[in-house]
């Protein structure tokens, strides 16, 4: 499936007044990486099913990080269908009216705190603020944004989505978020 490039990066720059040149990814942050980028930097145990966003470079070459004040926008218009507690905060699950045959696009925003007006079944416009990062460090990994993009069977009950279900279900296709953001 060839997804249209979103304006996610443009939105995050604008919403947060970032002086931005490019995202910077350490080994282990990128899609399908098998290494951890935090803690002991050992093996993940399975390939990374998303993209971890933390570092960016300014036009002057300075390395900066997003933080708990960073407003996180949704990648495509859609609906927030679920939130699950994770080891750094929450994961928000959004579905979109983008289909590939009998599969539907779902985006996941991990390790976040949802904004007060974002509740389950809330419709969201592209670039709408859905979350921030939790403050400080809550585990071996520093606060960061994890994004996964996945095609799920259109008939999969979205209220049943979870990391475990996504890891164990047949008929799913994870997509590299880097080409979309």
In short:
With 181 residues, this protein is mainly beta. Helices cover 8% and strands 35% of the residues. The protein has one domain: Glucose Permease (Domain IIA), CATH 2.70.70.
- What's the total helix number? 2
The name of the CATH topology is: Glucose Permease (Domain IIA)
Instruction: Report the end-to-end length measured between terminal Cα atoms.
Output: 15 Å
The CATH homologous superfamily is termed Glucose Permease (Domain IIA)
Shape: globular
Question: Main beta sheet, described?
Answer: 9 strands, antiparallel
Oligomer: single chain
Low-pLDDT residue intervals, each spanning 5 or more residues: none
SSE run: HEEEEEEEEEEEHE
What is the CATH first-level class name?
Answer: Mainly Beta
Per CATH, which architecture? Answer: Distorted Sandwich
Helix content: under 10%
Structural classification: mainly beta
Number of strands: 12
Overall number of structural domains: 1
Strand content: 35-45%
Radius of gyration: 16 Å
Mean pLDDT over the full residue set: 92
């Amino acid at each position: 499936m060839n997804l249209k490039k979103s304006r996610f990066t443009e939105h995050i720059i604008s919403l947060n007044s970032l002086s931005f040149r490019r995202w910077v990814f350490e080994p282990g942050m990128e899609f399908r990486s098998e290494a951890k980028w935090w803690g002991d930097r050992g093996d993940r145990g399975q390939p990374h099913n998303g993209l971890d966003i933390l570092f960016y470079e300014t036009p002057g070459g300075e390395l900066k990080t997003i933080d708990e004040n960073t407003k996180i926008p949704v990648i495509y218009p859609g609906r927030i269908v679920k939130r699950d507690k994770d080891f750094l905060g929450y994961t928000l699950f959004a579905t979109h009216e983008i289909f590939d045959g009998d599969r539907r696009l779902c985006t996941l925003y991990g390790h976040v705190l949802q904004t007060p007006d974002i509740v389950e079944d809330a419709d969201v416009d592209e670039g709408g603020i859905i979350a921030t990062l939790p403050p400080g460090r809550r585990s071996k990994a520093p606060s960061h944004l994890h994004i996964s993009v996945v095609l799920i069977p259109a008939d999969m009950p979205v209220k049943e989505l979870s990391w475990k279900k996504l890891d164990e279900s047949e008929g799913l296709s994870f997509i590299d978020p880097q080409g979309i953001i």
